[in-house]
Amino acid sequence: MAERGGARDRRGGYAETWPTTRQAVAAPSQTPSGALPAIVARLRAWASAEAAAVRLLPWIPVAFGAGIAIYFAADHEPVAWVVSVTAGALFVSALLLRRHRVFPAAVMVAAVAAGFAVATIKTAHVSHAVLARPMYTPLLQGFVETREVRERADRFVLRVVRMDSRRPHVKLDRVRLSVRKGTAPAVGSFVELKARLQPPLTPVRPGSYDFARDMYFQGIGASGFVMGAIKTVSSPPGGGLALRYAALMQELRDAIDARIRTVLSGDSRAIATALLTGRRDAITAPVNEAMFISGLGHVLSISGYHMAVVAGVVFFAVRALLALVPALTATFPIKKWSAAAALAAAAFYLLLSGAEVATQRSFFMTAVVLIAIMVDRRAITFRTLAVAAMIVLAIAPESLIHPSFQMSFAATLGLVALVQVGMPRMLATPDHSPTAKAALWGGREIAMLALASFVAGLATTPYAAFHFHRVTPYGMVANLLAMPVISALVMPAGLLGLAAMPFGFDGLFWRLMDFGIEWMVAVAQGVADLPGAIGRIAAFGAGPLLAATAGIILLGLLKTPLRWSGAIVVGLAIAWSLSVTPPDIQISAEGRNVAVRGGDGRLRLISTGKDAFTVREWLAADGDARAPTDPTLAEGVSCDDAGCVVTMSGGGIVALTRRPEAMQDDCVRAVLMVTQWRAPEDCLAHVIDQDRLRREGALALWRTPNSSRQDASRQSTSRQSASNIGASKLDASKLDASSFAASRSGFAVDAVSPAGVRRPWSSAAFDEQQARPGSKKREPPADTTPAPEDLQPDD
Questions:
Q1: How far apart (Å, rounded) are the C-alpha atoms in residues 310 and 497?
Q2: Cα separation of the two ends of the chain
Q3: Phi, psi at residue 7, to the nearest 5°?
Q4: Kindly report the CA angle at 359 between 354 and 361, in degrees rounded to 5?
Q5: Per-residue pLDDT reduced to its tens digit, 437-477
Q6: Helix (H) or strand (E) holding 638
Q7: Which helix (H) or strand (E) holds 411?
Q8: pTM of the predicted model, to two decimals?
Q9: Helix/strand/coil (H, E, C) string of 240-257?
Q10: 200: exposed, middle or buried (Cβ count in 10 Å: 0-12, 13-18, 19+)
Q11: What's the CA gap between 424 and 411, in Å, rounded?
Q12: Are 117 and 63 in contact (CB under 8 A)?
């Protein structure tokens, strides 16, 4: 009996990573008498069990990531050597306290400091210039590093070697340029061209995604498009090994795409190429939209699922082939050999697909699992996930704030928790007849697929709502219908097609992929057409997202009943996100688009320029299903050559002033005026001018209680001004001081870059005037003679 009990405790030869709740928690009979003391004692016992050293490792990447998040929340760039020394000192302190009871807390503090330091060092390492103002027709020479084939226009990244322009002080390392479809130069070539360059795209509203930050960590200082022809010229030395490697991998991707193109076309060809090479930009917009609405968008981004399929197919195929030789099976560890082959295949797939963040995470996770098999350790654990997270964050700390990292790790955390908690019970095989066992196995597999889809979808919902402002109500249905076909047909056929390419027999496998892809697209479009398929969520801040993240981590990592506190935290995060008040006015960074909330609660648009991307983002963040071209956006908007006006919710006029001569009237009548001109000092309206937009970027405004007093003062002033003889000019000396103050404080304002906040990826942070040699005006030497009354007796 003792031997059988010991076998159960070992779980088939593997030691338990986590002590069970019964082992960690004291028996109820040992608690003090009384309900409240008993509850307190039990909570303490659970907390002591959670704080055990054996459970410390999965929390280290959480603390490390918290340090990275704190870094990105800083107002300005930290001093690298100071934060490095601080992190080193805290690490040494944690080592010295390793036998003390405060060791877990010391390790967490050291991990937070380490994350902060790693992010600071990474930013300093990639430091480069960022274009602050548009440039027209500069002459560029450089090496083509990457190339993207998209649906309508291609795009490539140019590593700039020479840059000639009217602003010779501006020197950029890399630029991203768009060209007509099919005209992008080959990777590795040295080209000469003229282009129109723009600063990197800043957030279109406060709290939205910062594309400029992404481009900064990619080493790109500007974007734009090519003007005229691209000339291939003789290259100078200095291309480097990395460029030759990029050219080789691009040639391989092009060769695969060319082979697929001979058999498939349209979205089937684009999706097949995306699954094998990671190039998904050629998928048409309707299919891409249907994939994400239905919850199948994760299939298009190479992540843990794809890596698991590739490694799994290679692992079982190699093991089956080796098992055909009895001598190998009896003598050698073919399981470990198969794991090594699967690891090599996963590494090749990582390089072929471009090694994006989600692919890196999935590769490291898969690699740890396969290495665990090779060294006879348990594979799928929280420690495996923790090691993968630490590797990704140490290499690319900026990935923490990318939706790909957040969604992939949240889904993986949920699935690992499911494997650790739920699936062992589901996989417990009762002693039935073979027929009953087969029926039970099939039902159990379907249930596990449904449960895994539900858990992964639930874990990623907060991040989809935050970044994309929508959820997928029918995601589980779409995944149940499509994923078995993708796993059993599409991905294996793609791998066989890659293997058959050198022999010329790959066409059959591309056709097999086509059958599965057509089924997946049909499922996606069918689910996307269902009523209520698009769950629109209004934008909310980072606070509810952080709270939801904390709740998901507590649910996933805690082992005692304390884990259910995570559900309470998630519930509070949901309530918090739903209680956020949307802004009354939004202003684009260029001041050409203003969205104003009307009396019906929907946005109205004042626009002097075409910017469908900004308007689409505003509508999505408002939970509004209208398109940027919807005519209802212009309801109540009046425009003429001098500008546009619209009445906002609660009364009051918002004006977009185009000409200086309209400013006097708008200053009197409008609650808020947006203009590229400098307003008069006595202007009653709350003024947003071009200088402020250039400094702070896009703005969001909320009306404050002072606005009612402001409106009353403005109406009185308008009547007084209109009674003057043919004049609209306002005499500021006749205004009450309190009315003037009210007009200046009628709105609460949030900005993309508030005053005092400057990070290196912001174009406003790169002051071209300071970068220009000798650009500062020479001032005459100052008179340094002190005043007699300022001198001391001993001077």
A1: 13
A2: 98
A3: -65, -40
A4: 140
A5: 555 555 666 777 778 888 888 898 999 999 999 888 888 88
A6: strand 638-640
A7: helix 403-421
A8: 0.83
A9: CHHHHHHHHHHHHHHHHH
A10: buried
A11: 19
A12: no
In this predicted model, what pLDDT tens digit does every residue of 164-215 receive, in sequence order? 988 888 889 999 999 998 888 988 899 999 999 999 998 999 988 899 999 9
Angle made by CA atoms 685, 600, 709, in degrees to the nearest 5: 30
The total of other beta-carbon atoms located within 10 Å of residue 615's CB is 24
Euclidean distance between CA atoms 107 and 88, whole angstroms: 12
- Contact call for residues 181 and 150 (beta carbons, < 8 A): yes
Please give the full DSSP string across 43-112, using - where no structure is assigned: HHHHHHHHTSGGG-GGGHHHHHHHHHHHHHT-SSPPPHHHHHHHHHHHHHHHHHTTTSTTHHHHHHHHHH
- The one-character DSSP state at 634 is G
Burial class of residue 677 (count of CB atoms within 10 Å of its CB; 0-12, 13-18, 19+): middle
**DSSP character for 489?**
I
Q: Are strands 643-647 and 653-657 parallel, antiparallel or unpaired?
A: antiparallel
CA 723 to chain centre: 56
Helix or strand holding residue 586 (H, E)? strand 585-587
DSSP 539: -
Place of tokens 């603390």: 63
Chain center to CA of 746: 34
pLDDT in tens, 295-354: 888 888 777 778 888 888 899 889 888 888 888 887 888 888 999 999 999 999 888 887
If you search the block for the tokens 């049909």, which residue do you land on? 522
DSSP 178: E
DSSP-based three-state secondary structure for 8: helix
Distance CA 364, CA 384 (A): 9
Q: Which two tokens stand for residue 6?
A: 């010991």
Burial of 346 (0-12, 13-18, 19+ CB in 10 A): buried
What's the length of the chain? 795
Phi, psi of 489 (to 5 degrees): -125, -55
Residue 144 structure tokens: 């083509």
Contacts of 749 (CB under 8 A, 6+ apart): 699, 700, 701
* Burial grade of 294 (CB within 10 A; 0-12, 13-18, 19 or more): buried
